[in-house]
């Protein structure tokens, strides 16, 4: 059974990396859309709000499920998890600003705050990349090393837009 648990946790580690890859793809597409906004109305705003929701759902799943279980199984990860949760809070504040800009863009008749959205997306992408790399290095390593399979929350791995 230990081999099956090990196989499952390695698979979870890979799923986490794949979820991050999908979020990276989504923000790249969103940034491209912000730079080349040719469509009218609230298309950019809709995509921004959907992305914000997807990333928030992913982080909530990590905070409430994955990280909590990891700390129960591996208490020495408490400091690492606390840093990741702190990152999530910082990212959440950026997402709040981005969502507000997206709502303003949807309400604007003209170009709206597209440049501000682009700047927020650039900053968010940089922070996300740093966060994801750290998380993949530390949490995936922990998952790969004999953390028993558990009831890992689906929102960590699958979210709106995927």
From TrEMBL:
Q: Which residues form the Hemerythrin-like domain?
A: 14-140
Q: Name one Pfam family in it.
A: Hemerythrin
The highest taxon in the source lineage is Bacteria
Stored Gene3D superfamilies: nmb1532 protein domain like (1.20.120.520)
Protein name, as recorded: Hemerythrin domain-containing protein
Species name: Kitasatospora misakiensis
Q: What is the lineage of its organism?
A: Bacteria, Bacillati, Actinomycetota, Actinomycetes, Kitasatosporales
């Amino acid at each position: 059974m230990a081999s099956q648990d090990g196989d499952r946790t390695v698979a979870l580690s890979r799923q986490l990396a794949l979820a991050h890859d999908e979020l990276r793809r989504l923000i790249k597409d969103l940034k491209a859309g912000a730079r080349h906004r040719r469509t009218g109305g609230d298309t950019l705003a809709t995509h921004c709000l959907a992305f914000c929701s997807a990333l928030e759902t992913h982080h909530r799943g990590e905070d409430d499920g994955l990280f909590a279980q990891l700390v129960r199984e591996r208490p020495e990860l408490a400091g690492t998890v606390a840093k990741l949760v702190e990152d999530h809070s910082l990212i959440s504040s950026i997402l709040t600003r981005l969502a507000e800009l997206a709502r303003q863009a949807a309400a604007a008749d003209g170009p709206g705050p597209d440049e501000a959205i682009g700047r927020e997306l650039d900053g968010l992408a940089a922070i996300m990349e740093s966060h994801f790399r750290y998380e993949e290095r530390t949490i995936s390593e922990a998952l790969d090393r004999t953390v028993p399979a558990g009831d890992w929350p689906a929102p960590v791995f699958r979210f709106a837009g995927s």
